[in-house]
């Protein structure tokens, strides 16, 4: 328990770091989104003033050329162009900006007149923009249009206005490019910066307020998770011990096959999640023997055919038992498949080759090895070399050849370090295995808390 709690202090510390990263990431995203929103909001404050100024100037010019707007062909634009060229440069009224380009068209979108203010730096860029952008003017339709565009290195307002003649009929379409002043851009930047700074302060203040609460809750949940996992592992050990006591005088068979299984799984490169399932299956592989009568289970001699069929039912009993506990259900592969044979001659389903779950094929190797090399009430152990020789004869028949070859590569050292171990030493080895693989299970359980406090979706 102390080791598990120590590991989870480290896990809690990692979640501290994760929370901080998430908060910083959230702050950046929120600031970016609200920064754009603030910029557009600030710009919209000036947008109406820009439109009002432009409409005022446009109306002055419309009145100036009203006589030409009343002519059928608008004088082919010559008079309108002359009137436009004759306009003196005008200063903007309130430092918002000024019109830098005007284009006047008839209602068929034929150009009549255009003008740039002297010294404007981006005439080609404006013409390129105007060539690809037309407002959807229509006689009697919407009278004004506007959009924010970027030309060169700064924002502009693209405006569209319908000029009517003295009879109120649509006579010409006007498009203008309005340059926002440096003063206005500075005010926009300042307003945006103020908004972003406010967002940062609000996020940080909220974080400082709630972070201790979240961490306190996290510590409680982590501690509960540790206790729950310890209870699950204790249940696994006790249940495995109860099974062992039915047909043996010690728990050592369960301990050894679990240790052998894990080391073989590591040699084969299995994922930690698969090894956790394997550990549960190894500890509970014969759990179904609880449902077998003592007269059969403890019979010292060979079983009759009917008795052997009864003994085989311990597989189904085992499935039924672990199905009742969600934490143990992933042990079912080993429980169901550890008496299958690679050639299909085993039981309970007669599965063969890859149809037998990998964990069950793996466990079949170590289960038989331990049965051969350990003392049982009804048999004496045989030596390591003889056991391996017998098993190699069954390669491809009883055992998966690839798994058996992998086991042969580690079996000698594994056997030597395990066979001489007493009960306390085996328990200590098993405890280290549990610590190594089931702290990951708690991490999985804690992901729900992590998602809750960070907003991450699984």
What do you see in this structure?
With about 450 residues, the chain is of the alpha+beta class. Among the domains are: about 65-180, Beta-Lactamase; about 250-420, Hypothetical protein af1432. It is about 60% helix and about 10% strand. It contains 15 helices and five strands. It has helices spanning about 1-65, 65-70, 80-85, 125-130, 180-245, 250-270, 270-285, 295, 305-310, 315-320, 330-335, 360-375, 385-395, 400-420, 425-455, and strands at about 95-105, 110-115, 145-150, 155-165, 170-180. Helix 6 packs across helix 12 (about 360-375), helix 7 crosses helix 15 (about 425-455) and helix 13 runs antiparallel to helix 14 (about 400-420). The longest helix has about 70 residues, at about 180-245. Mean pLDDT is about 80; it is low at about 445-458.
Short summary of the structure?
The protein is α+β, with helices and mostly antiparallel strands and 458 residues long.
What portion of residues belong to β-strands?
Answer: 5-15%
Strand order of the largest sheet: 2-1-5-4-3
Query: Which value, in Å, is the CA radius of gyration?
Result: 41 Å
| Estimated helix fraction | 55-70%
Distance from first to last alpha carbon:
29 Å
Looking at CATH, which topology of the domain at 248-420 would you report?
Hypothetical protein af1432
What is the C-level CATH assignment of the domain at 248-420? Mainly Alpha
Number of helices: 15
Contiguous low-pLDDT stretches (5 residues minimum) are: 447-458
Q: What is the oligomeric state here?
A: single chain
Q: From the coordinates shown, what is the CATH architecture of the domain at 248-420?
A: Orthogonal Bundle
Shape: elongated
Largest sheet: 5 strands, antiparallel
Structural class: alpha+beta
Count every beta strand, where a strand is a DSSP E run of 2 or more residues.
Answer: 5
Mean pLDDT: 82
Order of helices and strands: HHHEEHEEEHHHHHHHHHHH
CATH superfamily of the domain at 248-420: Hypothetical protein af1432
